[in-house]
Design goal:
This protein has 296 residues and is α/β, with parallel strands linked by helices. The protein has helices spanning 43-46, 69-72, 82-94, 109-121, 138-141, 160-167, 172-187, 213-226, 257-269; strands spanning 31-38, 51-56, 78-79, 100-103, 128-132, 150-153, 191-192, 198-207, 232-236, 274-277. It is built from 9 helices and 10 strands.
Length: 296
């Protein structure tokens, strides 16, 4: 926040979020829609006991297919200050969480940074995962250096026309590519502990969309050309036509098996060495949590 209002994200809406909602549909203090052990992340994030996910309300993208639209566009639960977020982190660790997984954290970086420091001072020992759509500014991410252990960004699009049509952000790639560079600078390649759990590093996620394999190829081309071939990529098949997807064919249908197969084959053809793939059975609404404000 500045005297000109909120400038945390690429929207730079200038809103006084102490009194109003910003372009992210969120006030300055976060509403937490759910805090729970989450089993449906990548295996090295969820492990056997689950990732300690804290789902925040609000989002600075406007994805027409958003699976969490109830909380990206609305409010569930109650507001938490930095001390309360820190307590949530410690509670999740006490329940066995392999890590603390901050989901859609971008609008709340100042609060989250304070919460991480306080939780660490009170004994938090598990890694912090920053789970983001990557529509972020480098300046804001620098405030998290030394606090976040694992970055889990999406790289949704390269083409500005597609990112504008599906997520309302023609400048998505311009910002996301620079944001991911900063995340990589801070944390480097993924490192696992002796149990195979993520300890530090970055994993770039990409959701393959129906009728958009060409865009997936552009994303993979960029990653392969820009980073070492050892970079970890989670190529996801879990698309489900949520929210307003019915108005945007071909997003109104599930991803086809042959589309995902082409995407996977292309990734391997580029020599990408750490390409994590999903079963097509992951494309189900059953894996989307019920956002009820429950943090008990």
């Amino acid at each position: 926040m500045t005297s000109d209002g909120c400038m945390l994200c690429p929207r730079k809406c200038g809103t006084d979020r102490t009194n109003y909602m910003g372009a992210c549909n969120a006030p300055i203090l976060p509403y937490v829609a759910k805090a729970a052990l989450h089993m449906w992340e990548e295996p090295f994030i969820s492990g056997e006991r689950g990732s300690g996910a804290i789902f925040f309300c609000g989002c600075n993208l406007k994805c027409v297919f958003c699976q969490n639209h109830d909380i990206s566009n609305g409010i569930v639960g109650k507001q938490y200050d930095a001390d309360e977020v820190a307590k949530l982190m410690l509670t999740l660790e006490s329940r066995g969480a392999h890590n603390i997984n901050l989901v859609s954290p971008a609008p709340f970086v100042p609060v989250i940074a304070k919460a991480i420091v306080r939780a660490r001072n009170d004994g938090l020992a598990v890694p912090i995962v920053y789970n983001t759509n990557a529509y972020e500014t480098v300046e804001t991410l620098k405030r998290l250096e030394g606090l976040v252990d694992i970055y889990l960004p999406d790289l949704k699009y390269v083409d500005s026309r597609i990112s504008n049509k599906y997520s309302g952000a023609s400048d998505y790639f311009d910002y996301a590519s620079k944001a991911i560079d900063e995340m990589y600078r801070q944390c480097g390649l993924l490192a696992l502990d002796d149990a195979g759990m993520a300890r530090k590093g970055i994993v770039i996620r990409h959701l393959v969309l129906p009728g958009s394999v060409d865009e997936t190829r552009r994303v993979l081309d960029y990653i392969a050309a820009h980073f070492t071939k050892e970079i970890n990529i989670s190529l996801m098949s879990q698309y489900v036509p949520f929210y307003n997807a019915c108005k945007y064919p071909p997003l109104d249908r599930p991803l086809l098996k042959r589309e995902y197969k082409r995407a996977v084959e292309y990734g391997f053809s580029l020599g990408l060495e750490n390409l994590l793939i999903q079963e097509m059975s992951a494309a189900t609404a059953e894996y989307t949590p019920v956002f009820d404000g429950n943090c008990d």
